[in-house]
Each structure stands twice: as C-alpha cells, then as structure tokens.
Design goal:
single chain; Rossmann fold; 7 helices; 19% strand; 244 residues
Length: 244
C-alpha cells in the first residue's frame, strides 16, 4: 500500500483526485470506457470537489457506489445516492450511474446490482476508512470471504455514532441499523484503489489498517494486500503512524 501524507485536506483531496483521474483516463485510452466506484461521507468532500474539475471524459465512464442505508429515501439528507447525485452525477453526467436503492427489497437489490457489476471490470475504486476501520459499510468483523458483490450488513454502534457525529442525522436513534454494502472481496477486485482519509478522528483506524495485521476486526487492513492501493492522509489521520 502506497501512503502519502499532506498538510491539508485540500491538498490531500487534490492529489487523490489527480491520481484517480489519471487512472481513469488511462483506462479510457486503452479500452474506450471505464468503470469506477465512488465513496461518500465527509471524508470525500475535497476529493470529489477536485475530481469533477478534472478533464476526464465522463460520458464514457460508468459509476457504481459503495453503500446505502436501508429504509431512507433519496430525499433524506444522509442518502448516499442523493450525495452523489448532487456532488458528482449532476455535475459531470457520466455514461451510467448505478444507484443503490435502500427502499426496495434489500436482498433483491443486492442481486440486481451484483448482476450488473459482475459483468464489469472496475478500473478505480475511490474509498475511505471509517472511525471503526470499516471499508464501505463492512463493519468489524468484516466478511472477507463472500463472493457476493453486494451484501446486507448490520451497522455497529461505532459506525452509527460516526454518522451522527458527522451531522447526517438528528439523533442516534434516527441512524439506520442496516445498510446495503459492496463486499470487501468485490472492492479488492478493483484494478486500483484510491483511499482518501482525512481528520485526526481516523488516526487510530489508519494506524491499525496500515501497521497492524490483516484481520476482519480491522476491515481496512485488507488494503495491505492490494497491489495498487494508494492511501492519502493528512497530518491528523497520519498522526499515529511510525515515520515513513
């Protein structure tokens, strides 16, 4: 895993977007099309803001996203499809956006999306790491073995507290207890992974993911096993790491 540390979130986001855009453009040049995965949440604000300003030909790019809450509409402030539509899709108009719906039968939705994604080669996955070291909504202990592209997951208390702390919900009780998430194995199938993780509140999770053992109790540690994973940190999120 390649680790880069920046002084500010703005610089972190700009470089992560630049690297991701170069990988997408390379795929377009080679194949004429590209497929990417996008994360959401507060950690992705700067990166996405920069990504939409790059010179990528988005009309040839297919977009999937990592996860979505079960039971909330796309008008809810915390809806991840709302987040991506407003911050990405409506701005760049990609060739396709395969949104996860949390308002239909969850198992059927996993099957529907899995059937689409299984036919694609993912060129770049843009991901983050949660305060509990989750990858997508794969909370610890994560399932490293399932071959299903999308799965129904239970959200642990630490994950739900993070969502409350970031201001997406008015109370802990309002945070859903289940979600649809891309599986760990599916994320790891991506040809390249751009992992953007700002803020000191993520420092312990980052330290475990980078320097600890690869174990389901630290889901993001699996990134150590990916041949082309790039981790972008700021001074806060990198504060517990040993000097590079």
């Amino acid at each position: 895993m390649e680790v880069s540390i920046f002084n500010t979130k703005t610089a972190l986001g700009a470089e992560a977007a630049r690297k991701g855009a170069s990988l997408i453009s390379a795929a377009l040049e080679k194949k004429g099309s590209a497929t990417i995965i996008l994360a959401t949440g507060a950690s992705q604000f700067e990166m996405l803001g920069e990504l939409v300003e790059t010179g990528v030909d988005w009309s040839k790019v297919c977009v999937f996203h990592l996860d979505e809450y079960i039971g909330i509409p796309d008008t809810h402030p915390a809806s991840f499809r709302k987040y991506l539509k407003e911050r990405f899709v409506e701005l760049v108009r990609p060739a396709a956006f395969h949104a996860i719906s949390g308002e239909t039968d969850p198992e059927a939705e996993c099957q529907r999306l899995g059937n689409i994604l299984s036919k694609q080669e993912v060129d770049v996955a843009f991901v983050g790491i949660g305060e509990n070291a989750h990858l997508a909504f794969n909370d610890p202990p994560a399932d490293f073995d399932t071959d299903e592209p999308y799965i129904v997951v239970d959200l642990d208390l630490a994950c739900r507290r993070q969502q409350l702390g970031e201001g997406w919900f008015p109370s802990l009780e309002a945070v859903p207890e289940r979600a649809i998430s891309m599986s760990v194995k599916q994320i790891m199938k991506s040809r390249a992974i751009i992992c953007t993780v700002p803020d000191a509140r993520k420092a312990e999770a980052v330290q475990k993911a980078v320097e600890g053992e690869v174990v389901p109790e630290v889901p993001a540690s699996i990134l150590q096993n990916h041949p082309h994973a790039c981790l972008y940190l700021d001074q806060g999120s990198a504060s517990l790491l040993k000097p590079l």
